[in-house]
Amino acid sequence: MPSETKTRIFLEFQFAMMLISGNILFAKLVDESVWMITFGRTFFASAGLYLFLKWRGKPVFFTETKENRAGLGSGILLAFHWIFFFASARFASPAVAVLTLFTHPVMTVFLEPFYFETKPTGKDVALAILVSIGVAILIPEFGPGNDLILGILLGVLSAFTFALRNLIAKRYLSHHGSAQVMFQQTLSSAFILAPVCYFEPIPTNARSLGLIFLLGTFFTAFAHTLFVKSMFRLKLKTAGILSGIQPVYSVLLAWLILGDIPGVREIIGGTLIVVAGTLETIRYKKDS
């Protein structure tokens, strides 16, 4: 792969990470339940992607039944990933949600051999451990009560479902367009979450609706389509380790928008994550 192409893919991936990092801000900015936020974002994302595909004259479903099942099934995993992610932020804190999510590069390194003919190398394990140490440093100390523990467990579940979703999409759908893949995933997510409308009132507040619309269209449909496109061009373990930069972006965004100033833990842990991502980037550029 030409060096220019690798650079473009890397920059697209990092831009997608910056946008996805902004997702966690909506857990604080939107005064709705985790279920309603997730349903709203998937509804607007699937609607936006449907209009985009129709505008481009692209099909919205695949010709193979097996591939449609993979797309819709990975969408269910994506729905649970988002639910666990926002619930973790509500029970613990946005920082805990973001940081525990990034155990998923470690999970990916060791789950990938079940889906592809690959084995983790010593360098893979070392970089995964480095990311894990960085994340562990970022996580605040345990305090009294069960909410923090529950938040951390939900964050780990969020990471596990995210890793599985990426593996399934990469294994069965990487030869398809990223917008088509994301449409199917957000469509099935919205479908299984639709019953929430029977149990909770649909938001009528203009601020909540506007924020959920922004989350669903720009921070979900566009950002995750760009992420899937880049992920299909990278080795999955590379994408997993490179995405370890997301907690750093999230901390910076929380600082700029919410006024949460990073402390010593965030600086030290973030530095380790950046080092791991930089090393993986150098290794990726050297690969043929």
From TrEMBL:
Q: InterPro entries this protein is in?
A: EamA_dom (IPR000620), EmrE-like (IPR037185)
Pfam families, per the entry: EamA
Q: Where is the EamA domain?
A: 16-138, 150-276
Quote the cellular component terms of the Gene Ontology held in the record. membrane
Q: Does the keyword Ion transport apply?
A: no
Question: SUPFAM superfamilies of this UniProt entry?
Answer: Multidrug resistance efflux transporter EmrE
Q: Which UniProt keywords apply?
A: Membrane, Transmembrane, Transmembrane helix
Protein name in UniProt: DMT family transporter
Q: Give the source species.
A: Leptospira gomenensis
